[in-house]
Specification:
Layout lengths: L5 H10 L3 H7 L6 H9 L9 E5 L5 H8 L6 E5 L3 H12 L4 E5 L12 E6 L5 E9 L2 E7 H11 L1 E12 L9 H10 L1 E8 L15 E7 L6 E8 L11 E4 H4 E2 L4 E2 L12 E2 L6 E4 L11 E2 L7 E4 L4 E2 L2 E2 L10 E2 L9 E2 L2 E7 L12 E6 L3 E3 L3 E5 L11 H11 L2 H10 L7 H5 L2 E2 L2 H10 L8 H11 L4
Parallel strand pairs: 1-2, 1-4, 2-3, 4-7, 8-10, 17-24
Antiparallel strand pairs: 5-6, 7-9, 8-9, 10-11, 12-13, 14-26, 15-25, 16-20, 17-20, 18-19, 21-24, 22-23, 22-25
The protein binds S-adenosylmethionine.
GO biological process, one term: DNA modification
Catalytic activity: a 2'-deoxyadenosine in DNA + S-adenosyl-L-methionine = an N(6)-methyl-2'-deoxyadenosine in DNA + S-adenosyl-L-homocysteine + H(+)
EC number: 2.1.1.72
């Protein structure tokens, strides 16, 4: 028996990872305090349990789980890296007599639905859309971690529990829509714990995404989900602030977006942007596929081209001095990228971390047909197939609404990433077009208007004060 502790084996394995393989197989090993918190989410039981660890690395997650489980429990750990598989064996042998380490890809192992506890910190890698075959047909996944989680959930016995350490990205956006719907239909969502700081918990692993713990179980949905919206990766999780919330209060819309907090009650009387007849689309010009139409100068019959560089606070300026072409030639007319003249609200799809607001909205009134770069979203009152400009006052009012603090806070609770998705925006609570027009009468869309004035005017208009 080795004299090294499970944490020592993990630390030594982390220090000796080959950079190429680490990248290729996404080897980010869970530090001991996070492993303890993850394993603590399983319901204690006096009965022996069957434990499964998918992509086990040094084996830390299943070893900690086995250590907390009753005598007679067993572990199956699957790890495709031979060196890490040996580390898993060494870790697990210290805490459990019945251990099987399988040195293969999890996708090459046939697993029965027989496990009481499944624990995993899977690779977080984007993949081209792939359908994973399930008992009820299939589920489309776009990331390896979703593929691992589908496999994990399928391996659960009835009443079994699964704890996963994954990024927060599955909770919103289009890419994880199918996965979200599938998971919520197959099991009970029991615990969500979102780590508030990005760097703290995987300090030696250089992980920049927002990471969370999720616990699901193979049983009908429990009455309340336990939510730790600002978890800290130290000490016991139980003692940290948390809420018990009905799942319904966390879910939004047909796309089943999952929030980490209940919505601010001041927003509960508003319908969603989509329900108010507003549609969010993504700019149609992908510049590197349309290099031949970009132009530094205005040409006869050409069109102005807007990038995020043209956003200047709440207003839009064109042309601007920057290293991007400000026009397209009339060749663009045949490429379905030109939008009709009129009023819009432009929203940047990629905000910078240091930016004060996640949502950066700017009012645009164009007297001519124009083109929007693909890194911008634009709000109009048409459909996914047809762009119809907004009434001018509604466009102004919407820009003010999207620039408010309450909406910024709302968006942060929906999305942990700096990307601003059209799908999420469509679910955003929004006043009616008439109310937006009234808002635009109360306040000019101008960069001289400060945040306090925007927030106070909105508060007064909706009698929140
Ligand atoms: C993010 S690391 C986590 C390791 C370990 N579970 C932990 O928490 O420390 C993911 C692990 O999955 C392994 N892995 C990646 N793809 C795999 C696959 N298809 N089958 C099995 N293991 C895989 C990697 O080698 C790596 O050890």
């Amino acid at each position: 028996m080795t004299s090294k502790t499970i944490a020592q084996i993990r630390n030594e394995a982390a220090a000796s990872l080959s950079p190429e393989r680490q990248q290729q197989w996404e080897q980010f090993l869970t530090p001991a305090p996070v492993a303890e918190q993850a394993a603590s989410l399983f319901t204690p039981t006096c009965n022996p349990v069957r434990i499964l660890d998918l992509g086990s690395g040094s084996g830390i997650l299943s070893a900690v789980t086995a250590k907390r489980s009753s005598h007679g429990s067993s572990v199956v750990a699957i790890e495709q890296d031979p060196a890490l598989a040996a580390d898993s064996e060494a870790s697990l042998r210290q805490v459990c007599d019945d251990v099987e380490v399988i040195n293969k890809s999890i996708f090459d192992v046939l697993l029965e639905s027989s496990f009481d506890r499944v624990i995993l910190n899977p690779p977080y890698k984007k993949i081209s859309p792939t359908v994973i075959v399930t008992s009820g047909g299939g589920v489309k996944v776009t990331n390896l971690y979703a593929a691992f989680l589908v496999t994990a959930i399928q391996a659960l016995a009835s009443g079994g529990e699964c704890v996963a350490i994954i990024p927060r990205s599955w909770m919103n956006g289009d890419y994880f829509k199918d996965f979200r719907k599938w998971m919520l239909s197959k099991c009970s969502l029991d615990v969500l714990a979102v780590y508030e700081s990005r760097q703290e918990h995987f300090k030696d692993m250089n992980i920049l995404q927002e990471i969370m713990l999720v616990k699901v179980s193979k049983q009908p949905q429990t009455k309340k989900v336990t939510v730790y919206a600002d978890a800290m990766p130290v000490g016991s999780l139980e003692r940290q602030p948390h809420e018990s919330v009905a799942l319904k209060a966390l879910l939004m819309g047909r796309d089943r977006i999952v929030r980490v907090r209940q919505q601010d009650p001041r927003l509960s009387n508003f319908r969603t942007m989509a329900d108010q007849g507003l549609w969010v689309s993504t700019g149609k010009l992908v510049w590197f596929r349309n290099r031949d139409v970009l132009s530094d100068v205005e040409e006869p019959d050409g069109h102005p081209l807007y990038w995020s560089d043209n956003q200047d606070g709440m207003v839009t300026v064109h042309p601007v001095e920057c290293d991007r072409e400000q026009w397209v030639t009339n060749k663009a007319d045949s490429r379905k990228v030109v939008l009709p003249a009129g009023s819009y609200c432009l929203v940047n799809r990629f905000s910078a971390k240091e930016q004060r607001h996640r949502i950066y909205a700017s009012y645009l009134r164009s007297g001519v047909g124009f083109v929007a770069d693909n890194k911008l979203n634009y709000v109009h009152q048409g459909t996914s197939r047809q762009t119809v400009p907004l009434d001018d006052k509604a466009a102004r009012g919407l820009t003010l609404w999207l620039s408010s603090s309450i909406i910024d806070e709302w968006y942060r609770q929906v999305s942990g990433s700096t990307q601003v998705n059209a799908t999420d925006l469509r679910q955003m609570p929004c006043p009616t077009k008439n109310q937006l027009a009234t808002l635009s009468d109360l306040l000019p869309v101008s960069n001289d208007v400060g945040q306090d004035r925007i927030d106070e005017t909105i508060e007064r208009l909706f009698s929140w004060a």
